[in-house]
Amino acid sequence: MTYSYFPGCTLKNKAIDLDVYARKSAEALGFTLEEIPEWQCCGGEYPMAKDEIASKLSSVRALANARDSGHDLVTLCSACYNVLKQVNNDVATDENVAFKVNNYLKQDEIEYHGEAKVVHYLEILRDVVGWDKVKAAVKKPFTGKKIGAYYGCLLLRPGKVLQLDDPENPQLIEDFIKAIGGTPVIYAQRNECCGAYTMFEDESIPKNRTKKILSNAEDMGADFLVTSCPLCRYNLIKNKGDSKLDVIYFTELLAEALGLKEEK
Amino acid sequence: MEADLTKEIILQKSGVNPKKCMVCGKCSATCPNYDAMEYHPHQFVQMVENGDLEPLLQSKSIYACLSCFACLERCPRQVEPAKLIDGVRAFVEGQRGPHRLDPVQVPEHLDDDMPQQAIVSAFRKYKR
Amino acid sequence: MERIGVFVCHCGTNIAGTVDVEKVAEELGKVDGVVYSTHYTYMCSSAGQQMIEDHIKNDKLTGVVLCSCSPRMHEKTFRSCAERAGLNPFKVEVANIREQTSWVMKDMEQATEKAIALGKAAIAKTILDTPLIAGETPMTKRALVIGGGIAGITAALDIADAGFPVDIVEKDYTVGGKMAKLDKTFPTLDCASCIVTPKMTEVSQNPNIRILSASEVCRVSGYIGNFEIDIKRHPRYVDETKCTGCGACIEKCPNKKVPNSFNLGLNNRKAIDIPFAQAVPKVANIDATYCLHMKGLANGKDNVCGFCEKACAAGAIKFDQKEEIITEKYGAIIVATGYNPISLEKFDEYAYNQSPDVVSSLEFERLCNASGPTNGHLLRPSDGKEPKTIVFVQCVGSRCSADSTKGHEYCSKICCMYTAKHAILTRDHYPDTNCYVFYIDVRTPGKLFDEFYRRAVEQYGVHYIKGQVGKVTPQSDGTLDVQGSDLILNKQVHIKADMVVLAASIEADKSARPLATMLTTSMDNNDFFLEAHAKLRPVESPTAGIFLAGCCQGPKDIPETVAQSSGAAAKAICLLVKDKLKNDPCTANPDENACNGCGQCANVCPYGAISYIDKDFRGPNRTTITRHVSQVNSAMCHGCGACTVACPSGAMDLKGFSNKQILAEVDSVL
Fold first, then answer.
1. Is the Cα torsion angle C291, C297, C298, C300 positive or negative in sign?
2. Domains of chain C, earliest start first
């Protein structure tokens, strides 16, 4: 099965190895990621205001491209997932937004009304490949490792639009952890925000958030954390402080479990 | 008169109906960044409804909001305070004058590992 | 020659404010057949009714037309009026110039024109009205109470007291409902068991009452005074007539790991068990999904365990007990299906799924109850230690918006009071334990209710915080970090709690909606049974013969439940005391000579009132022809008219609303 792949800015640049892991793992599990040509940055944060139209266009262009290629749009990054899925929902349900967006896109000769479907890579593992098949493909299971899932905020909320999992009691990444042989650790702060972009406003904000998250995860017995958002990963590592917890991106973990990560 | 107009603009921008709020305080209870904010989500809703906008427009609380959607998810009345706070922020940033974050300020925060995502998201919120 | 009297009501300014009632009376007075036409401020008042009666007698009226409010309000009033004056009550018609005219229009000229048109139509109908005589049906003098909680028990006792036999159908293994699970009741702090168990005993000993436990209604047919009900009795695998409740079987049962639903899953029970010591009926029941012997039987082995059977001196164990359906007839039904707290699985911001020490209010009640999982000691489910700090969170799943996917729109009414009760009881038994209540409002409308809440604050030192809880984070040391807002002090507070109690919203039982469908009675969109009139008829459903009691009609506390139950019982007794019931004579009436036996009318009748018979008719040349013709049971017919529309030959007509009458109404309006 082929998917229209939206990598997002970070995965093609600062975190390019995470993109490579994702592609290799996909091939091993039987699906292909076909990168959308000339995709543009999603913006990182969903523009909430009703009169913000231009900032949604880059997302719509990517979605239209996916629709035209006949594939679902897949992304690895929580933030891209959040922006793309919410924008897709806007164009499909808000007449005003759909009208204005399509006016702008006339010059590109694109018309779009929310036909494409946005999925997250983990959704494909859960719904299309199936955890059993993932488990069967694992060569180096993380047996005995107690792994905490860090969802952050953008992967799950707003629950009504994203509908990926129960926003307060998700199982998605825990099931992933089990599939790669680890033991999931549940801790309440797993779906609370890391601080996002506020290091530009006040560095103490992500510091405080990180402390709360890591101390809770460590207290409940996690050996390390797995996450789906490059910004969460950055914040939690940068502001680690005294904590012993590492934070690893899920595609890296997946590639390692599938035996695809080259020994360095 | 001007306060009324500003309130009207912010309500239209955000699509929020503050009258739905029953002042339960769950939004402020759940806000992960409560302590860094001068005005809290429940106050934003009440102050906008009362037309008491000046303090909000001046406050830096609008830049402390993490856009994490927790208040939006947990509000029992679907008031969506996050969208209201963002509406005020968008209004303020939309005015003429300096932005909260200028490109020249970025290098002092940079380090080798910072993902583009951080900078892009910050510009979305702290600049028009 | 018809002599019609027209009476136009002002209804104060309700009608007269928008309709020129004088003009209406004047114009209608000119219609052929009308001999008297007048207007008056309140036709439904004593003076107004007297006016109608006087004119019927003095002007020798043969028909009466009221131009007034909806017939749903006062058709009955005016029909009785006519009857008193000696006029057949079915020669009275009502033109609705309030709900259909003055209340929905603003322009006086247009409203007056419409009122006149409606009045003319009513006159045309009245002229063609035939005097109808109401038929009678017999009354089955037996009542059915669906639900054996305090609502059902109260109603059953009242009806039995009046001398009528009553059946209580209860789907659980014991009566008592939620009240039997409570520890104390507010505001008196009466022990719930102490006040409900004597009632339960009364119900079991009353010769007029039969308890059908582990039973559910599965089919309803019939009508008021003559219901026929199928009741499904689920097997409990113990013979009720032989079991003495001695408990020997429970002692011998080796399977201790069965989740105890009576204690809401807080502890385990044996595979054979009696719900609690004061259960009525005090009869054991076997949980077939966990019973080793029954699981063995399912796998073809009949020699697994069976210790209970060997231990039972009365020989009451019956592994082969089957589901049974019994059919009974009743004259009146009382619905008392009660409530349940909502599921809290969507509220994991409170860590309900993450920590056993985050409990719902009913679970907390079980923990306080002396016959509960901890024998009445308030202990943490996780480690059995006493909690030193308890946080109570109000309004979980209540007062949500209409489009909420997690909770209900309404206020659950009882939570503010029971939380104050929980806090007082905790502080009373454990003076070292701190209690915090996060509230949006404190709702204490009943007698001595606000005083009770003030005692909690002033005498017992319970800390009430105006705000809500946003997140509960369980820690590895077993405590719970509770993050909440204090709106008065404008702070986000963190409380290190040992236990968190969530005041879960209450909702109708899952069996309520299917039951409403069976009874063909109405529900609102929260699955609460609808009352016939929100203000004036709170204990009757709109369906004749079916009455409502308790939380199935809306959240309420025990005194309100008991009051409503006695009210419902009184209504039921009013019915049962009659030997015969007068039917509404406006029923379908087939013309046998025009009926061609097609069967369409029987197909469309929602009440099953139409059947077909083979009848002999006189044919030409002294022959007899047998024809298949329709017959209407006028006791079951509700006069809906579906059959008259379906009938292709026009043989079916409706008394009081004949095809001719309807066409006459249309003609007069055009």
1. positive
2. 4-128 (3.40.50), 143-234+323-338+509-576 (3.50.50.60), 248-311 (no CATH), 341-507 (3.50.50.60), 588-654 (3.30.70.3270)
Confidence of residue B113 (pLDDT cuts 50, 70, 90): confident
Residue A264 pLDDT class (50, 70, 90 cuts) = very low
Report the distance separating Cα A93 and Cα B15, nearest Å.
14
Nearest CA in chain C to B42: C487
Give the position of tokens 């231009």. A54
Give the minimum alpha-carbon distance from C513 to chain B in angstroms, rounded to a whole number: 25
Chain A hits for C347, CB-CB cut-off 8 Å, are: 168
pLDDT confidence bin for B1, thresholds 50/70/90: low
Q: pTM here?
A: 0.89
Domains of chain B with bracketed CATH? 2-95 (1.10.1060.10), 100-128 (no CATH)
Rounded Cα gap, residues C392 and C666, in angstroms: 64
CA distance C641 to C643: 5
Nearest to B26 among C404, C466, C468 (CB): C468
User: What is the percent of chain C with per-residue pLDDT over 70, rounded to a whole number?
Assistant: 100
Was domain A2-121 assigned CATH 1.20.1050.140? yes
* pLDDT of C649 strictly over 80: yes
Q: Are both A2-121 and A131-257 of the same fold?
A: no
Contact A41 B122 (CB under 8 A): no
Of B24, B34, B78, the CB nearest to C468: B24
Work out the pLDDT band at A262, boundaries 50, 70, 90.
confident
Please give, rounded to a whole number of angstroms, the shortest distance from the CA of A189 to a CA of chain C: 7
Grouping H, G, I as helix, E, B as strand and the rest as coil, residue C34 is strand
For C342-370, the pLDDT digits (tens) are 999 999 999 999 999 999 999 999 999 98
Write down the ipTM of this complex: 0.94
What is the enclosing helix (H) or strand (E) of C429?
helix C415-429
Spell out the domain ranges in chain A.
2-121, 131-257
Put simply, the answer to whether A169 touches C353 (Cβ < 8 Å) is yes
Q: pLDDT tens across C44-68, in order?
A: 999 999 999 999 999 999 999 999 9
Concatenating the DSSP letter of every residue in A65-111 gives HHHHHTS-EEES-HHHHHHHHHHHHHHHH-HHHHHHHHHHHGGGT--
- Neighbouring CB atoms inside 10 A of C559's CB total 12
Taking the Cβ of residue B28 and every Cβ of chain C, the question of whether any pair is shorter than 8 Å is answered with yes
- Per-residue pLDDT, averaged over C112-127, amounts to 96
Q: Can you say how many angstroms the Cα of residue C23 is from the centroid of all Cα atoms in its chain?
A: 45
Q: Which amino acid is at C202?
A: E
Min CA distance, A8 vs chain B (Å)? 8
Question: Could you report the per-residue pLDDT of C287-318, keeping only the tens digit for each?
Answer: 999 999 999 999 999 899 999 999 999 999 99
Q: Which residues of C touch A219 (CB under 8 A)?
A: 475-476
pLDDT at C583: 84
The DSSP-derived string for A208-240 is: HHHHHHHHHHHHTT-SEEEES-HHHHHHHHHT-
pLDDT at C635 > cutoff 80: no
How many angstroms separate the CA of residue C506 from the nearest CA in chain A? 21
User: Do the chains contact at A169 and C476, CB–CB below 8 Å?
Assistant: no
Question: What are the chain C neighbours of A221 within 8 Å (beta carbons)?
Answer: 476
What's the CATH fold of domain A131-257? Answer: Rossmann fold (3.40.50)
Closest partner residue to A188 (CB to CB) among C345, C347, C471 is: C471
Q: Do B125 and A197 touch (CB under 8 A)?
A: yes
Give C495→chain B minimum CA distance, Å.
12
Is B25's CB within 8 Å of C404's CB? no
Q: For residue C445, with 0-12 CB atoms within 10 Å meaning exposed, 13-18 middle and 19 or more buried, which class applies? A: exposed
